[in-house]
Predict the structure.
Amino acid sequence: MTDSRAATKPTAPAAATDLHPPAGPGIGRTAAAAGLAVVLWASAFVAIRDIGPALSPAPLALLRLGVAAVTLTVLAVARRTVRVRVSRKALLLIAAYAVLWLAGYTVALNAGEQHVDAGTAALLVNLAPLLVAVAAGKFLGEAFSRAVLVGSLVALAGTAVIAAGATAQRDWAGVLLCLLAAVLYAAGVMVQKATLRHVDGFTAIWLGCVVATTVLLPWAPQLAVEMRAAPTGAVLSAAYLGVFPTAIGFTAWAYALRRMSAGRLSSVTYAVPAVSVLLSWLLLAEIPTAYGLVGGVLCLAGVAVSRRR
């Protein structure tokens, strides 16, 4: 799909075609970008939970997004795109999704993971892809195919199985905060999809991180105080969040989102809880339960179904 086509508002038939893009090298790159975003975002749940005791939700979000903004600015300078021209409408859209998704979602998720474990948080946030699929059909004119619907339901069943096997104590404050994060996530994806009709993915996420960092600057004094007392490992983990799940992960996501319908791409993120279970096993030596294994298989099966032509 060419950039000129992505930059115009699609009609209903065009949106339906986007659900079944033609095969080719571009499709492989889009799938690779989506897969990279899933793996990096899954790792973020584990890192956030580990950092929680050292940094408060808003200061952690400020540090994460600040690192991402600096990283992307360095890349922008290297690409010589600092003087890129963006329309006023595009800037407003970038600011909207930066506040909703990059800032709001990140703070809500950080706060939620201070009350519930990483796996439960990933499960609750996984309500977002279904919200995106429904909203994209209603507001963006994207066809809601049977494969996406069936795949989403299968993956949602998988996340429910993972939840059934979780042994951590639930905290309703954490549950509500993670559900709020899911709503902000879905709203952010919808606005970002509209944004990518006016600007390329790299520029959108770069300027979005700059806006989100600016919004969170009132928490800079608190961040400075907490960083002096925080362990070095927590600060390094926060830097990891900024460079990889945010700068690289969101850039990869924006690349894929510009070339695929929002509903179909978001269904791929149902794999996040399954990947989180796997990463916990590999990195933290936490052996997954039978519920986790079965649920993970269902999540991945749901993604495979939703990706069928």
